[in-house]
Amino acid sequence: MRPLALLPRPGRARRAVLLCAGVLTGGVFGLAWWVDRFGRREQVMEADALVVLGARVLPGGVPSGALVARVEQAAALYRRGVAPWVLLSGGVGTHPPSEARVMRELAVAAGVPASACVLEEDSHSTQDNARFSSRVLRERGARRVVVVSDPYHLLRARQCFRREGLEVVTSPAPIDGRMRAVDRAYWTVREAFALLLHPRLLWARAPGGR
């Protein structure tokens, strides 16, 4: 075995690659930790509106488990009097109808009056949710909102809505019993990558710089 001192030193290119890999890995897992911690916190306060972010609709218009959990969480907040109306945000995905329309049926069944449900049916991404929802919210005079989604999704969602100039608090839909730990870890790391790919989101601040 050759002494360590005699082993060839890695070239500059290799060292640079290793350094970048280390920084990227540390950044991803650091952000994943932040995503996870953030999503576990309930931050609800009185607001102008509740905003529920859509999730997959299954064949035949059947709501996915994520869709059901998000709407049930928002309905519970509505019944507590957190906000006077609910904006349901989500367009048509692989299977019709729109996520928003499926959510309205769930919300009404959970005790939210149909008159308190407003639909946004054009969005197909979190950024779309924020952009299209903000138009509806401003038209109705809403400035502070409670965004409801799965825990791992909430940090990026908050930042997207902040970029639209809204004051945002978040409320996680429960995932215990409907998502395995390995799946939660996968989606949490995926969200960290999404934030790294859109670093400007990380600098979004609440109105007034808070």
Automatic annotation (TrEMBL):
It holds the Pfam family DUF218. The chain crosses the membrane at residues 16-35. Gene3D superfamilies: HUPs. InterPro entries: Cell_Envelope_Assoc, DUF218, Rossmann-like_a/b/a_fold. The keyword Transmembrane applies. The keyword Transmembrane applies. GO terms for cellular component: plasma membrane. Keywords: Membrane, Transmembrane, Transmembrane helix. Residues 48-191 form the DUF218 domain. This is YdcF family protein. It comes from Corallococcus aberystwythensis.
